[in-house]
């Protein structure tokens, strides 16, 4: 989970008649919620108590309270400290999966959606966890499902209801997840699928779709498979529903040219499709290049030359770049095991609301989540022995690329096994503790646990992961690494000055997260640490 707080806004409390500062929180590059300091402090207190029960430590210190009103400098310092705190919590393998953390963020999204009127006035003051709705979910073959759910349902709950609609057995649910997608039509491409982001348990797919439509003309929720290792396909071939879902996705990927198919092979695949030979179709498609990869929109990279346009694909333990030069297509593959580390840079063109405007329903206040964001993914790659080079990708999908790389590394290293026992303790303790959420007006409400009521979508089960082909990769042996697995990611937030935001200096402002991966602070891809001379 990548957090950033690029800016703040002044909100008005009708209850007290005063104004307060709201911190605009982005998760994985998308606007999620606006919380005030006391709400984040309440979250911290719950996490602190839960960590004490588990005998673990929080990875960051929460910024202290202040008795007097904050100056502009102190407000900026608090914003940066809160951002740093959330970033460290979001990158902790245990804390990021805690029911406290995910449920609190889910409720924060609901409160912000109501306050900003994203649902309309009819839902003002409603408990969205009890408001029924119909969510349209796309299958890969463009068929749609009308799924009955609640507006406040998280991704796993909605996924379970989708699986019930298509009658997919429960044991196969872990193989699938939900994405936000859109169809792109232009003079060059017609009805091409574009992935926006993967939906997680800290958010409501219904609300996330509404927020995304504030920026995108149209987007939909789609079900797709959730794993990277193509050998897991074999487990789906014995169930008719799972087989049809997998078949529909492969056909979609071939139609979108995500899977490269020579004309003669494409002709055979078309014949198999026409005769309804789905298993044979899948077996043939599995032999094609880029099978099992996700393809992203055209991006700018600085390799082999600056400002090179490339198509990026991620899958099969590698990141692939296809570039065109002199009428020829060149493909460069970067293996994930040779990436020492990577970082994501987000540059927000922020707009600060004038201090004289205190009403949160003002038009400027409602548009803060729409500010454009430029994203860059940079990774340090082992080009040859003793030679490392940074390669930068500029793309609106850079955050999704980072999430994909992280999940691929997790699958390679069986990271879930290292924290599975601790997560079991988290679930056991959560059943005996009552979670709560503090709203903007200070009202405390009890909330259900996301971990105890649903199945998490981001990871496969331990049994499934144990068959990974990358179990020979070694991890760090230090006690700090084993007790607190960390992601090999650095996340930077860059803010620029605009005429609406004169408080920021002309020089760019950065905040960074550094992870503990051993005795000293460093940033490492643990799959990289297992590289041998044969890989070079």
Automatic annotation (TrEMBL):
GO cellular component: early endosome
Name of the protein this chain belongs to: Sorting nexin-17
Annotated segments matching region Disordered: 448-489
Entry similarity comment: Belongs to the sorting nexin family.
Family annotation (PANTHER family): LD15323P, SORTING NEXIN 17 AND 27
Xref: SUPFAM superfamilies: PX domain (SSF64268)
Domain of life: Eukaryota
Originating organism: Bactrocera dorsalis (Oriental fruit fly)
InterPro entries reported in the protein's UniProt record: PH-like_dom_sf (IPR011993), PX_dom (IPR001683), PX_dom_sf (IPR036871), SNX17-31_FERM_F1 (IPR048763), SNX17-31_FERM_F2 (IPR048767), SNX17/31_FERM (IPR040842), SNX17_FERM-like_dom (IPR037836)
């Amino acid at each position: 989970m990548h957090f950033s707080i690029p800016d703040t806004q002044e909100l008005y409390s009708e209850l007290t008649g005063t104004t307060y500062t709201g911190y605009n929180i982005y998760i994985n590059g998308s606007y999620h919620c606006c919380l005030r300091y006391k709400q984040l402090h309440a979250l911290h207190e719950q996490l602190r108590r839960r960590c004490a029960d588990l005998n673990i430590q929080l990875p960051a210190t929460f910024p202290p309270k202040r008795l007097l009103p904050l100056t502009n400098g102190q407000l900026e310092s608090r914003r940066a400290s809160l951002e740093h705190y959330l970033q460290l919590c979001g990158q902790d393998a245990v804390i990021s999966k805690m029911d406290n953390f995910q449920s609190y963020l889910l409720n924060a999204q609901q409160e912000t959606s109501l306050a900003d009127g994203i649902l309309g006035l009819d839902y003002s003051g409603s408990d969205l966890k009890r408001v029924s709705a119909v969510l349209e979910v796309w299958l890969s073959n463009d068929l749609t499902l009308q799924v009955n759910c609640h507006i406040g349902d998280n991704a796993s709950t909605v996924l379970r209801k989708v699986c019930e609609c298509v009658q997919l057995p429960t044991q196969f649910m872990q193989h699938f997840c939900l994405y936000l997608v859109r169809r792109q039509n232009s003079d060059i491409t017609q009805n091409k699928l574009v992935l926006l982001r993967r939906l997680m348990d800290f958010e409501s797919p219904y609300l996330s779709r509404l927020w995304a439509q504030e920026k995108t003309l149209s987007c939909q929720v789609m079900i797709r498979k959730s794993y990277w290792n193509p050998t897991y396909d074999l487990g789906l071939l014995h169930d008719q529903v799972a087989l049809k879902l997998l078949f529909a996705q492969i056909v979609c990927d071939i139609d979108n040219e995500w899977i490269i198919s020579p004309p003669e092979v494409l002709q055979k695949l078309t014949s198999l499709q026409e005769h309804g030979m789905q298993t044979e179709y899948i077996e043939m498609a599995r032999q094609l290049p880029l099978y099992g990869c996700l393809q992203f929109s055209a991006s700018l990279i600085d390799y082999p030359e600056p400002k090179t346009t490339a198509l990026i694909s991620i899958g099969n333990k590698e990141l692939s770049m296809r570039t065109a030069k002199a009428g020829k297509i060149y493909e460069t593959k970067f293996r994930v095991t040779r990436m020492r580390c990577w970082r994501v840079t987000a540059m927000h063109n922020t707009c600060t609301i004038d201090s004289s405007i205190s009403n949160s329903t003002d038009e400027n206040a409602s548009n803060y989540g729409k500010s454009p964001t430029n994203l860059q993914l940079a990774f340090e790659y082992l080009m040859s022995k003793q030679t490392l080079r940074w390669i930068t990708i500029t793309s609106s999908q850079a955050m999704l690329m980072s999430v994909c790389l992280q999940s691929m590394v997790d699958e390679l290293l069986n990271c879930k096994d290292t924290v599975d026992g601790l997560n079991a303790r988290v679930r056991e303790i959560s059943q005996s503790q009552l979670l709560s959420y503090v709203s903007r007006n200070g009202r405390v409400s009890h909330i259900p646990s996301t971990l105890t009521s649903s199945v998490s979508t981001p990871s496969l089960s331990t049994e499934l992961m144990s068959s990974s082909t990358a179990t020979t990769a070694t991890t760090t042996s230090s006690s700090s690494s084993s007790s607190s697995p960390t992601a090999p990611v650095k996340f930077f937030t860059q803010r620029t000055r605009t005429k609406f935001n004169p408080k920021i200096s002309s020089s760019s402002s950065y905040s960074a997260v550094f992870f503990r991966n051993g005795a000293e602070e460093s940033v490492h891809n643990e799959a990289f640490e297992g590289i041998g001379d044969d890989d070079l």
